[in-house]
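Human: We require from you a standard protein entry with sequence in single-letter code and fold as tokens, and nothing else.

Assistant:
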Amino acid sequence: MQNPKTKTPPRTSKKTKNKTKRVLLSILSLFILLIIALPFYAWKVEPFLVHVNHVELGKKNERTPLNVVQISDLQVSEYYETNRLDKVIEKVNAQKPDILLFTGDLFDNYSKYPEQRAPMIEKLKAFKANIGKYAVWGNHDYGGGAVRVYEDVMSAGGFTVLRNQGETLTLSDGRQVFLGGLDDSLLGNPSVSDTLAYRQNYDYAITMTHEPDVADAFIGTDTQLVLAGHSHGGQVCIPFYPIKNVLAEKYTRGLYQLDAITQLYVNTGIGTTSIHARFGVIPEVTQFTIYI
């Protein structure tokens, strides 16, 4: 028997080798570009953006809906100075809100930049709302010396600060909306019962709390809407590795149905804290169209 002839393996052409090198170089270049571009975007681009989320609640009817706008966690600091609020003010005022609600954390650490107090008041005055502007306390409004100035600054800016308190607002067609505000749950002394004690006759109830996970306390209280902030939506969104804040572990961003009546919305905020970057969590203004 004759031995089969041994075949010589085909040689890789020079052209093929060069093509492979070009592909590898392209992949490497793209990887290096991403390493440079992603931090630049997270620190220098996304924190400067402002997105308006529109949320419709209730069943449509012939009555004029209530137009509510929520902002949260401005976290004014050396990284987010008051002049950057102009874009937020423009976005909010463009919605022509009936009611503007702020769910806490005005300054990031007030003791480091007390000079921001006067310009902050002027920026707060620039926010417009047909019926009124209301706010609650956040944990940063207690910390860093802010506890001494927060309520005065907000009041001077035209906001009513609610601390375990509430008001009933009568709309032009006679409908009544209860608006309550819970004290901060980390550094304050919150009381759901004290807050709801202000509630009497009403057609719709909205309560504000800074930390979203305490919203479960409003289940079964005939409260239609709870608004919260604090979470920053994780602030830097890393796939498969969610970043969560204390008392913002269960509810982090967006709309939740707590029971048959009560819904919770968690606003992801405007500013930053700790790491002064955002990725995948664009600063948010929330506009609610509420049919009562």
Observations:
- The chain has two domains: 14-48, 51-290.
- Helices lie at 14-44, 85-94, 117-126, 150-156, 192-196.
- The first strand starts at residue 51 and ends at 57.
- Residues 22 and 111 are 55 Å apart (CA to CA).
